[in-house]
Amino acid sequence: MSKTVTPAELINEYNAWTVQAPMVRYSKQPFRELCASYNTHITYTPMMLSKEFARSEFARAADFSTSNSERAIFNLSRRKPNGEYEKTTEPIKGCLIAQFAANEAVTFSQSAELIAAHVDAIDLNTGCPTQWAYEEGIGSALLRKPEVVADIVKTTYDRVGSKLPITVKIRIDKEERRTEQLIKNAVMAGASIIGIHGRYRTQSSTTPVNLDGIALARSFSSVPTISNGDAWSLEQSLDIKDKTGCNGVMSARGLLANPAMFAGYEETPIECIDRFIDLSMSYGLQFPLFHRHIYYMLESKLSKTQRQSWHNVISTATALDWIEEYKESVLY
Ligand SMILES: Cc1cc2nc3c(=O)[nH]c(=O)nc-3n(C[C@H](O)[C@H](O)[C@H](O)COP(=O)(O)O)c2cc1C
């Protein structure tokens, strides 16, 4: 029998720290289960729109699915009061967090209630920088509205806080006092984890992550924190954890390229691709998404000709043949 704990307990009281980032389109059930099976302790759904989720059964079915097997079970050691870990381990279930974008408390808290039985926490997105999101007042539009964030978190905490923790994912702000105010408001309102993406709203993902900025943001938080940005390998992630002092390290593009990264693999192993195929087939991942995931996993290893030939693959049957041929070419 494994034990179930909250995401904050997982990264604060046990030696669990690896996190798969929320990714629109990509962090769906098969990918989450894949990452979890390779030592990822916490996984996030893609950002969903609370306005739609709360309103429509159709949106709920289209946006979210899960299963009993999606969380992996990890043998973890509990942290002792002196900061060291017990020598013994116990089986603890990983956590799944549902992320939503919202600009008001009503639909966010309704969504929390609707999804509470299926996830371990609900996360408020305050980082999405796209223009349409900004204009809707969601995502990064909330970065400088700490009072709205506090209202969303507090209302949800009052409504479902006893059964579902609330977490908040932010970006750092050029003006440090704004980051401080945002984090303090979120924590005071009841947030149990702060995820910190170390880039400003206006910075693209090609800008190197600001680890000092994350460390500073962490110092404003009295609850566990997760560092996010430029974690491309296990080694790099451990270094990020060290430098930022956060409890956890979250990866987006690193895991897309190599879902086995947190298990110590330097590149996507063939068995990971096989596992992804099985999960995608059994959960019914739509073909364009399946195609894209395989591309990301193999991208660094493919020649220009191989990339072109993969782009010409337009059905599951030909994709499976293509992958078999690719495997033969690397294995023999
Ligand atoms: C394809 C893709 C989709 C993303 N979708 C989301 C999302 O739904 N919610 C969110 O908070 N961030 C989203 N992000 C941002 C990531 O969660 C993460 O903050 C960012 O990519 C930095 O991490 P990285 O340097 O490890 O890629 C997305 C990023 C990518 C690459």
From TrEMBL:
Binding site for FMN: 22-24, 99, 197, 252-253
Keyword Oxidoreductase among UniProt keywords: yes
Chain segments annotated as transmembrane: none
SUPFAM superfamilies assigned: FMN-linked oxidoreductases
Gene3D superfamilies: Aldolase class I (3.20.20.70)
InterPro entries membership: Aldolase_TIM, DUS-like_FMN-bd, DUS_fam, tRNA_hU_synthase_CS
CDD domains xrefs: DUS_like_FMN
Catalytic activities: a 5,6-dihydrouridine in mRNA + NADP(+) = a uridine in mRNA + NADPH + H(+); a 5,6-dihydrouridine in mRNA + NAD(+) = a uridine in mRNA + NADH + H(+)
Enzyme category, top tier: oxidoreductase
Pfam families given in the database record: Dus (PF01207)
GO annotation (BP), single: mRNA processing
Enzyme Commission identifier(s): 1.3.1.-
Domain DUS-like FMN-binding as annotated: residue spans: 20-304
Domain of life: Eukaryota
Cofactor(s) this protein requires: FMN
Keywords in alphabetical order: Flavoprotein, FMN, mRNA processing, Nucleotide-binding, Oxidoreductase, tRNA processing
Active-site residue numbers: 128
Gene Ontology terms, MF aspect: flavin adenine dinucleotide binding; mRNA dihydrouridine synthase activity; tRNA dihydrouridine synthase activity
Family from the record: Belongs to the dus family.
Function: Catalyzes the synthesis of dihydrouridine, a modified base found in the D-loop of most tRNAs.
Protein name in the entry: tRNA-dihydrouridine synthase
